[in-house]
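Hi D.,

Good news: the full-assembly prediction came through. Inputs first.
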Amino acid sequence: MPSYSMHSGECALMDKKEYQKRARQVEPPRPIARNAFWAFLVGGTICLVGQIVQAVLLSTGFTEETVKAPTAIIMVFLGALFTAVGLYDRLTPLGGMGASLPITGFANAVVAPAIEFKNEGAVMGTGARIFQIAGPVIAYGLFAAFVIGILRYALRGVWS
Amino acid sequence: MTFLLAFLVGGALCLIAQVIMDLTRLTPAHILVGGVVAGVILGGLGIYEPFAKFAGAGATIPLPGFGYSMVAGILKEIPKDGWVSVFSGAFKATGAGIKAALIFGVLAAFFVRARA
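Then the structure:
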């Protein structure tokens, strides 16, 4: 009899790495080239839209220095709008990181759970879940920026 | 030309992130965190700024550009605010985007019905 009982420890002690290895064998292989193609196309298109938005803003009087914030706001608005009408969640399965990595994907990661969990309440639903993905991104981004900032501050005379 | 570069470079960044995700089987959230941290580090090394000047929105719209903005905000304020900017600078630079997302999120939750 194969010894897969809990007492043998073989299953109970299967660590995370071993589990992932076995899960990988069962999971169907991913179409890496096709995913990469769609990520490129979708992500590139969103960035192209961002460049157009920026060009329009520059023509209305913003400078290279001041144009970043309004561009981000408009792109976030577009991401939020497409999420609200349910289109962004149909783009993500196709575009993958092409839909998720641009700032419109960040907006989607904020707005989608805010809507999805509204039934759990305005505070513990929308309020708490709104940071589900954005929270880790902001927390670790700010932490890394803190470490880098300290280093650059210490080197401010040498490297600026 | 600017527009073509934005498309090509932005698309390439997303392609790299997608390939890394497919090869490592990390979750999308892990890739996004990795992307923003990578942008922070490249920004701190002074690599992302010339890259952003070259590729425009292709470099600033993807999440690594968000990380770069955090560092750029700190570096910009250091001469004026000193060590305090290490705490305040990153939010100053990225606050507009973060606040916009949160506001639209709360508004959308108010007006849009949750899908079953």
